[in-house]
Structures are given as C-alpha cells and as structure tokens.
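Morning run. Coffee first, then this:
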Amino acid sequence: MKKGLKTAIIVLAVLVVLGGAVAGFFIWRHQTGYIGSDRALQTALDHAGLAGAQVYDTDTEFEKDKFSAWYEVDFEAGGTEYEYIIDAVNGSILSSSAKPEHAGS
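And here it is:
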C-alpha cells in the first residue's frame, strides 16, 4: 500500500510540474506573439485622435480563432462610442466605427 501511494504522489507531482510548464509556454507564447492589449488600445486612440485621459468605459478583449487573432477595443469619449478591431499580430486596424452614444436606444 505504501509503495502504491508513493508512486501515485510522484506521478501527481510530475503531472503538476508538466501542466505548469505547458501553461507557462502558452502564456509566454501569447505575450511574445501578439502586440498586447495596451498597444491595441493606443493604436485605436491614435486613430481616433484621442488621448487616454479623454476616454472612459474602455474595454479591450483578446479574441482568436484557428487562423487569426485580434483585439476588440471599445471606448467612449465626447458623446461618441468607438469600436475597433485591431490585428493582434501586426497592430493594423481591421475595422473601426464611431457612433453617437445611445444611438438606437
């Protein structure tokens, strides 16, 4: 019984270490392969001609599918809602829109 318990503990410890290594790799890969949410937000702000202090309700989300990755960047300023989709690899603007706040409400 003691030998089986010892083996189980060793196997569990190896799996925990291996899981941590795999998770660390994917976190590292995400951080080094993409521009990051701060740069995506700054790209959108630059395009809109706004500074960070002028905007509120900012939201930046990372999205990806099998073939591409992007950031959805939303913020409001001066009565206008801005929505951007920024390429997560090269930082190019894939789409943008600006509309008056509460339009359609």
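Residues 2-33 form the longest helix (32 residues). Good start to the day.
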